[in-house]
Amino acid sequence: MAKIRLFALANKLGLRTEALIKVLNDMGVENVSLASAVDPDTASAAVELLAEQAEEARRQAQAAAEAQAEQEETRTRTDDEPVLVEDEQEEEFAPPVHDADLKEGLAELERYLAELQAATEQERPAVPEVKPLSERAARPTGERPASAVDVPPVVTVLGHVDHGKTTLLDALRQTDVVSSESGGITQHIGASEVSINDHTIVFLDTPGHEAFTAMRARGAQVTDVAVLVVAADDGVMPQTVEAINHIRAAGVPMIVAINKIDVPNADPAAVQQQLLQHEIVPEELGGDTIVVPISALKREGLDELLEMILLVAETERLWADPKGEFIGVVIESSISPSEGPLATILIRNGTISVGDIMVCGASWGRIRRLRDWRGKSVKTMPPGHPVEVVGLSDIVEAGQIVELADSPREARNKAEQIRDAERERSLMGQAEVQLRQIQQQFGSEQVKELNIVLKSDVWGTAQAIEASLNKLAKQLDEIQINVVHSAVGEVTQSDVLLAAASEAIIIAFRVAVSNEARRAAQDEHVEIRNYYVIYDVLDDIRRAMLGMLEPIYEEQLIGQAEVLQTFDISRIGVIAGCRVTNGRMERGARIEVTRNGNQVFDGELSSLRRFENDVTAVEAPQECGIAAHDFNAWEPGDIIKAYQKVEVERPLSGEPAESSSP
Ligand code: GDP
């Protein structure tokens, strides 16, 4: 039957793993750690021993208490007497945990074993299918209906901090406001529209890959074209690289805007060269990435940038059906003191009007007001445009899907269903981890897994780390990396418990660890590793994974000996009396025996003696007695070559992964 992981067993029985490890050591089972697995018989024996120890400790404690009571009756207690007795006992008996009744533990163990058995026979229960948001947020596909209209491409601006993303967005907005007659912008809603040559482009106003990936992480991939801003005086920087990775991971076409070409030390050509290092080949250098030099500050090159965006976007004509089913994606949300929850949604399909009833996640409401991207109130909004809605019951999250309902009752039901589904999903998530843990025990012992709970300050980084880890795992194909949980925010106790349950390590990326979590981590022997730089995470994980791999051994010649004479010893067999001519002979080494250049034996050096003593090694030029189990036909003049396996450094099948690659 399958082995049981100590960790899972301890968890099941409500014991600390170290209690179990200690008792196993007492039983003579050495070299066990929380990740070790033992066979069910050993597990039963360990639990029984724990039960006995607990009983014994209880008995001793009782006896001590009685003795103490007796002593107290006769004389005044001094500080170091009975208390010490208790302390000593406690120390000796430290591992058997909190007061779990171990008899019950035994029964529990049996149930657990039965459960394990059942799990082998059972298929993993199917996780109820939840229609992926990514499908729902995607542009409509299939036959274009007659009622369909062309819709503007959606653009996100990404790049390193201070390279000019915000300035570019402001400049584009201003260009449009100045060139149109519709007046200024009264209020930012989180997206803007820019027109050029009778075409419109929608820009999402929150730049950076964090926002981009936060949406994507929820399955809402709304960007059609990504503009990567790189400052001409600063070049490709770490966040540029992250942005590149995010854009690639999303599979979104990219245009590079080399910004700040107006500054005296601008060097656009150098930037192009740097891009090459990240496998972005600009058109000018024979590739197919469009690169536009701009100055956001001086508003130079902006029209060309817009034209290029249209060019890239128009390779697919984007359409939506104003009469079709309504689908919107939240791109921003906030609370207004006077109007309550506000949400800016990008309309993917259908039309929205004041008075409609909308549902978004567990929130719903009748639309009281709609505003276009300039903050101007409108009655209705066709697909393809951003719109701010007033009337939701609650704040919603970027990336959530907005639908319409026919009646308040339907909206309420839908919202409730979604709330239930979310709750269920989070429970399912937990169940899945436990299941995986059990199944792992039955799985192939050959597959090494590294489970990770990832906590980071922003979604973007989490995504970047995950993507990079996956790449790293690919380089070491004997290893599987599972990010069992990834979230933004400090490391909490529940993260630690999840990590413990899934035998995961926790990566705390630029986040704090709560005190509770720290304590839990100590109790559960969960490793929390703090990082500030993605490269360091990868480097450490790479090392950890290499440690998980079976070492690679190479056989090396360690010495040579010549047989001088042979002795036939009745109990042992024939022993070759030899002289080590160079290097050394070692017990257990593989030996090759040759006679006149022909091999006569290949096997293990099973016995090595120096005078009357068994020894493990004999160095040149000493003499020694050598025997091999399966070989007695030694002859003087035979040459013995000894080989030993030595561990060699494992090569990586690719370059070490960096955050700089997708
Ligand atoms: P972000 O962090 O990428 O959003 O960068 P910002 O848009 O906030 O710009 C950072 C700084 O660079 C600001 O001081 C801008 O005025 C300046 N900047 C942005 N674009 C240009 C440009 O084209 N030329 C020059 N000279 N400065 C620029």
Give the topology, please.
Layout: E1 4-5, H1 6-13, H2 17-26, E2 37-38, H3 40-74, H4 82-92, H5 102-121, H6 133-137, E3 149-150, E4 154-159, H7 165-179, E5 191-196, E6 199-204, H8 209-217, E7 225-231, H9 238-250, E8 254-259, H10 268-276, E9 290-293, H11 302-313, E10 319-320, E11 327-336, E12 340-349, E13 352-353, E14 357-360, E15 363-366, E16 369-371, E17 377-378, E18 380-381, E19 386-390, E20 401-405, H12 408-442, E21 448-456, H13 459-475, E22 479-488, H14 493-501, E23 504-509, H15 515-524, E24 528-531, H16 534-548, E25 552-569, E26 573-586, E27 590-595, E28 598-604, E29 607-610, E30 613-614, E31 617-619, E32 623-627, E33 639-648
Parallel strand pairs: 4-6, 4-7, 7-8, 8-9, 21-22, 21-23, 23-24
Antiparallel strand pairs: 1-2, 3-10, 5-6, 11-12, 11-20, 12-19, 13-18, 14-15, 14-20, 16-17, 16-19, 25-26, 25-33, 26-31, 26-32, 27-28, 27-33, 29-30, 29-32
Helix pairs in contact: 1-2, 2-3, 3-4, 3-5, 8-9, 8-13, 9-13, 13-16, 14-15
